[in-house]
Give the backbone structure.
Amino acid sequence: MQYRDLGASGIRVSRLCFGSLTLGPLCASLPLAEGAALLSAAFAQGVNFVDTAEQYQTYPYIRAALAGLPPEDAARIIIASKTFAETDIQAAWAVEDARLALNRNRLDIMLLHEVRDDADFASRRGAWQLLQQMKQNGLIRAIGISTHSAAMAAQAAELPEVDIIHAMFNQAAIGILDGGLPEMRAAFCLAKANGKGVYSMKALAGGALMHQAKDALLWAFSQPDVDAVAVGCRDYAELVTNLGWLAGEEPTEAAVIKHIDRNMVFDKEPRCHGCGRCVERCAAGALRLGPDGQAEWEKSRCLYCGYCIAACPWFCLSFC
Ligand code: SF4
Ligand code: SF4
């Protein structure tokens, strides 16, 4: 396993970051023991970096996996979480919730989750200021933003308070907003020059690039200004296949990655009220309200992030 410093943050991470979204209720809904075992297997292979978020509901998996390690090894696992908090009170709650749920006195990394643009960042000023204060008080080691937007990544690259940028980046440029690969690359280059740590998300575009998974993964790891790549997996075969490819090996027959062709399932009748919350939540533009007033899904635009699932108060959406 290769390791890199996350910019000037003083945090050193494995180049493969375990993206935990896939474990939880927004995706595979693995039983607690199964998800924790997958994380433990990754730790045993040298992975020391886990990406999560309050919205993913995967803290219990991480806590269970950490509990299986000797305390000194558990302390070396770097956990990055994210919050949609807008106000200082919401951010304080998010940090406290993460500290308690993960059984950590100090958080490694806390990011503002999916910052869309200037206006969105400004609307979360209270939360951002609170994160800065908590870092000064030693409750968080590093702070920053996650974003799908190349323009926002470029802006964050010039903000002195930002330590870490976590951004959408994949071979097919799926899901990159306000620009494409050249703009996102330029933002990463600027971020590195300014001492930021950069780790990318959605190397497989949430599953849309599974048919070319090896190429897409190796491409993501070959990008010079990307310190680490968050990759989700839903079973042991995927994990060992990804790790094998990174080590220059071919997977064994027993660990052949499957082409996962997932579909959104709408349980619309009679529950979809056409409230539009899922549409509003989907930054990729993969959802809209159809002529019948109910939500419609456009598969080719979907990143399989699962955010819409959490947004629906009537639990109409799921993946199969
Ligand atoms: S429809 Fe949108 S919010 Fe839902 S999983 Fe796809 S990209 Fe994510
Ligand atoms: S959030 Fe749920 S109820 Fe509202 S439009 Fe979307 S699927 Fe329908």
